[in-house]
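REQUEST FORM: STRUCTURE PREDICTION
Request ID: SP-0412
Submitted by: Lab K.M.
Chain count: 1
Length (residues): 426
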Amino acid sequence: MSETAAQAMQHVDQVPGDQDKEGLSEVRPIPRITIQAFCETDTIRQTLEMASGDRRMSRAHVSVNMGGIAGATDYYGSAPTPNLIIIESRKSGDELMAELGGLADVCDSTTKVIVIGHLNDILMYRQLVSNGISEYLVAPVSMADVMMAISDIFSSEENGPLGKMIAFIGAKGGAGSSTICHNVAWQVSSVYNNEVVLADLDLAFGTANMNLDQDPTQGIADAVFSPDRVDDILLDRLLAKCAKHLSLLAAPSTLERTYDFDAQAFSSILEVAQRGAPCVVVDLPNQWNGWTKQVLAAADEVVLTAEPELANLRNAKNLADTLVEIRPNDTPPRLVMNKVGMQKRPEISVSDFAGAIGLEPSVIIPFDPGLFGLAANNGQMISEADAKSPIAETMMNLSQIVTGRAEIKNEKKSAFGFLKGLTRKK
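STATUS: Completed
RESULT:
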């Protein structure tokens, strides 16, 4: 056995831990596909099971089994093959190729295959390429390695990768979450020249149309009440152009009807928006129900805005704990402390507030009713009302943080990539 193979065999028996979460921020959501895995070691099985529970895999249907290639071949002798099969094998060379040939005999031509092997060998890599394996990963692998490989295989078949979704929610009504959300969306679109879709999900009392000085006749309600019609053509018709790179899915902001939705009500329209823009910013109302929880769970980044007072502290603590629970493999929510330093109001210090909920504030925004009132009354963003104000700079800093431009990126781990699909042997 070669030294490289021996090292791989030694490391693969280690139990997966926090290191498996590294690089997950680079992984895009996996489309609605069926994935079945057949493992040989408990370590790979545990990694794949952890990956299957990640929110980026929520659209996919995943099952993880033991048995390796032999188990898969026996199983598919009498069962239909899924969109993707993930196989772990300790074998190499002709022995591996012979077993994969047997698997090909019982697989549909459209099925993709990822092999997780224990030997880092360029000759075997080339041999697998010529036989149409979609991807080859060398153990030990992380959740990010697996999900990145799946995303690379299927993203082009699903009309491209999904854009980044950033969700904003306030710890309490009036905390200023919507205003901060709208300003960040405007900053990302205007400063970085990125296409941004701002979705106002507070259908009854949304303010994005006023803050951006818009009066669209259609908006997100037209999509959410007709989910069977949602596609990129409908989305383009519903979007209101606010700036060169900023489009708005406006809320109706009326009480002509009630807005009771199931948990998946906004999933389709947000997914279509993500396929059409690299950044989707979501303004969530201060309420807790199935669909707000679902949107928060699906978001790439969550920004939690709070004021330094007791009710905000209680609610922020509950939200932060719940978000960590439903998003175990993601960064914690970004805390924004807003309206700090309001005169004559007893306040909890920022340090005490942050310590109580276990989050360090990403930015601290002072109480400035003059500047915010001026911007709101004129239908402007803070940077438009006073580009030189410290608060405008703070909004810029927050936009850098939530888009990842202010963070040091970890280098991606290299992985083998294959371009062909597994073909049925004749």
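NOTES: Residues 204 and 257 are 9 Å apart (CA to CA).
Reviewed by: T.R.
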